[in-house]
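Run log // design_07
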């Protein structure tokens, strides 16, 4: 019934399937890279992209839905629709529908399902998504914030970045000055202090890169103990794989994709227990980690090996740094603190 409901929802304007003529591929759009919010206030695509919540009615049945609208640049968009509400806020966990696309026409975004029909199924304008046809209803744009955003360090914690002067605590640390503050750049900074087991709070912001795709879209990474990579990526609206935001690279995908839209501050809250070794440096117990992304549990994982790219290619008894990987994208970090555990 779930798939039937979604198919009705996003094919509401379709009466019969029609053959699609093959068109030549669109020229590759120019690359857009913006990490300063002041440069986005008049961007029409940025104003549309984001999360929408509301109710739709189909054949007398009402149900709450959340829809994520992902910008592809040039006034074009993709969608992901979630029954019950948004990920981490009501979604029933079943496969979302990704059939509808949007294109800006005369000041509004017209929604269609290309595989079913060229007829519009609704539109987005003024912070609202309205569906017409068999499915009717209105969703309003929402702006979610992590409940741990701005979390204060507990007593005894090391504040690795709370103000620009704290860049001195990092090898390779660089400051990025933007219209809303000074932040730590994803320039391969490595904390001078090293840790075994610890709890950490990290805040990051993804850049606006609507014409980029996959691993080229705000790519960075948080390395736990400089040997386990917790991926940082603009995975908003994607499926949530181990190489996407919240995944441990090549090992463990997140339980739910909690990536918020680009240019929104996000949080990782990490509780890490280091691996144990005997006197001969043979591992006797695996490392474990629990991660919350924007306040939602996404990882409860036991490592059997290190991930690629950090200082340590394999697991060793020595403590490790906090490390943020640089892939050339202007991701920024703030409010970073670590509380070591005995």
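design_07 sequence
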């Amino acid at each position: 019934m779930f798939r039937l409901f979604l198919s009705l929802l996003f094919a509401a304007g379709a009466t019969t399937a029609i053959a699609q003529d093959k068109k030549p591929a669109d020229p590759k759009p120019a690359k857009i890279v913006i990490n300063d919010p002041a440069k986005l206030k008049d961007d029409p695509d940025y104003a549309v992209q984001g999360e929408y919540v509301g109710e739709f009615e189909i054949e007398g049945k009402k149900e709450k839905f959340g829809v994520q609208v992902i910008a592809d640049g040039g006034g074009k968009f993709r969608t992901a629709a979630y029954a019950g509400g948004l990920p981490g806020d009501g979604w029933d966990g079943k496969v979302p529908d990704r059939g509808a696309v949007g294109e800006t026409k005369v000041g509004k975004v017209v929604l269609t399902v290309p595989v079913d029909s060229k007829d519009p199924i609704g539109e987005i304008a003024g912070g609202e998504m309205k569906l017409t046809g068999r499915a009717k209803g209105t969703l309003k744009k929402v702006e979610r914030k992590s409940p741990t955003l701005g979390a204060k360090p507990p007593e005894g914690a090391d504040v690795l970045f709370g103000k620009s002067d704290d860049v001195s605590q990092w090898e390779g640390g660089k400051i990025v000055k933007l219209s809303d503050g000074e932040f730590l750049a994803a320039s391969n900074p490595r904390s001078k202090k090293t840790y075994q087991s610890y709890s950490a709070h990290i805040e990051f912001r993804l850049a606006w890169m609507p014409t980029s795709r996959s691993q080229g879209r705000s790519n960075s990474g948080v390395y736990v103990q400089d040997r386990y990579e917790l991926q940082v990526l603009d995975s908003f609206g994607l499926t949530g794989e181990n190489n996407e935001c919240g995944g441990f690279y090549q090992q463990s995908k997140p339980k739910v994709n909690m990536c918020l839209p680009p240019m929104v501050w996000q949080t990782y809250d990490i509780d890490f227990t280091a691996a144990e070794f005997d006197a001969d440096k043979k591992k006797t117990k695996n490392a474990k980690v629990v991660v919350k992304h924007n306040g939602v549990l996404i990882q409860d994982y036991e490592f059997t090996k290190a991930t690629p790219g950090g200082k340590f290619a394999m697991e060793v008894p020595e403590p490790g740094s906090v490390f943020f990987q640089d892939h050339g994208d202007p991701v920024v970090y703030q409010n970073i603190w670590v509380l070591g555990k005995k």
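The two ends are 51 Å apart (CA to CA).
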